[in-house]
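=== RUN LOG ===
request id: a7f3
mode: sequence -> structure
chains: 1
length: 163
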Amino acid sequence: MASGKQKKERGISRIDSGSTHGWFVRGYRNGKTWSRLFSDLKCGGRESAHKEARTFRDELQRKLEQIPAQPRARRIVTRDVRNTTGVLGVCRTSKKSPNGTVNECYSVSWRPQPGVQKCTSFSIRKYGEKKAFQMAVAHRRRMLKEIHGPGILSRINEEPPEA
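=== RESULT ===
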């Protein structure tokens, strides 16, 4: 690979910046990073530095595979600029019924486990604007407590706003 664009290789990047020229190897496991730069100058040229980088990368991958993977902690989102109700997971929307009528409601969504999303809604026509919103917020809070435990609401500092 003496000239032109380099073929992408997992975990290896080319650095040509200022006085730094070499191959950078990076590996990750359980939130930790292992990295090393293979300088063209110190390794005797671009190609030999690339060869050493590949050898190191392969050895690093074998070592990292021996470390048991820890499950990642669930990320709890506390705010989103797109949210308009003031409570994450609660939005005002409309639903079209099979007969074609459009009904306004507050929709609630939550994730009981990674990769699974649940939702329900509360009709504004049936409960009124304020009551439907309050029911949606209460349902969301109840689901968060079931999933994450009773301390979750103080951790995310969630106080329901007025509808």
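=== NOTES ===
The mean pLDDT is 87.
Residues 2 and 90 are 56 Å apart (CA to CA).
=== END ===
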